[in-house]
Amino acid sequence: MNKLGNIFNFLYRCGIMLILFLLIQLPPVAISIANRHPNNLWLTVLLLAIFLMLFGFIIGWAQRIYHCYLQRPMQQGIRPGMIIGGYLVLLVGMSVLGQLNQLIYHQAQTANNQAIASMLNHNQLATIVFAISACTLTPVAEELIFRGVLTNLFFRADRFWPKIILSGLVFSCAHISTNVISFATYCFMGMVLAYVYRRSGDLRNSIGLHALNNIVAIAMLLKI
User: Fold this and answer.
1) Over pLDDT 70: what percentage of the chain?
2) Residues 170, 17: contact at Cβ < 8 Å?
3) I need a labelling partner for 65 at 20 to 30 A (CA). Which of 12, 32, 37, 97 fits?
4) How remote is the C-alpha of 202 from its chain's centroid?
């Protein structure tokens, strides 16, 4: 009976993660639809309202799950050194992987970045909201899901590296990849974010790192 209970509990946790995984894919759909109707202001406003409500629901629900399954109390404290250090690691690692992607697959940027770029500059209002959310709402939502929830749902609290690797793999699956280098790029990013969270014990550090990375990426895409 205990074995069946463990199996049910594992499947239940997988189900929670699967729902969150699918939910976080929905907000960009609203932006894509708004981009097809750039001259329809009322439709754009409605879709952006749906976009923001989806993020609000996802963040609220993920936060409740995170606190419910949190294995260890948070060590309250933002560590700027870990955020900056993590960003430098990301910068070097993703630069190397980017060069490999261009050398082997002749892609100047990942398919995921191409998809993001395609959402910009079609509908001015949608672009503004999407750019701001990419630097604020997206880091909060994705860190809650792929670091806060995922790393606490699976493996014991003392299993450091299995949590890091799992977070990287699942995070990469949530981003568009067309080749192994592209997949490795987002897996690496997810692992660095997970390392910062697990090492610091405070999710705000990985949120800060994620936000910093997205701010630079969006600025480059918008050529600010």
Assistant:
1) 99
2) yes
3) 32
4) 16
The residue ranges of the chain whose pLDDT is under 70 are 1, 224
Which residue pairs from 65-72 have beta carbons closer than 8 angstroms and sit at least 24 positions apart in sequence? 65/16, 65/20, 65/149, 66/144, 66/148, 66/149, 66/152, 66/203, 69/149, 69/152, 69/153, 70/148, 70/152, 71/152, 71/156, 71/157, 72/157, 72/201
pLDDT of residue 224: 62
71 phi/psi in degrees, rounded to 5:
-80, -30
Would you say 145 and 60 are in contact if contact means Cβ atoms under 8 Å apart?
Answer: no
Q: How many CB atoms lie within 10 A of CB 67?
A: 12
Question: 34-43 contacts: CB < 8 A, separation 24 or more?
Answer: 34/123, 34/125, 34/126, 35/119, 35/122, 35/123, 35/126, 37/123, 38/122, 38/123, 38/124, 38/126, 41/125
pLDDT of residue 36: 92
Which long-range CB contacts under 8 A does 49-58 form with residues at least 24 apart?
Answer: 51/27, 51/129, 51/130, 51/133, 52/129, 52/133, 52/137, 54/23, 54/26, 54/27, 54/30, 55/27, 55/133, 55/137, 55/141, 57/23, 58/20, 58/23, 58/24, 58/27, 58/141, 58/145
Element spanning 101, H or E: helix 80-105
CB of 142 closer than 8 Å to CB of 171: yes
- Which pLDDT score is estimated for 118? 83
Helices of type H across 159-202? 160-173, 180-200
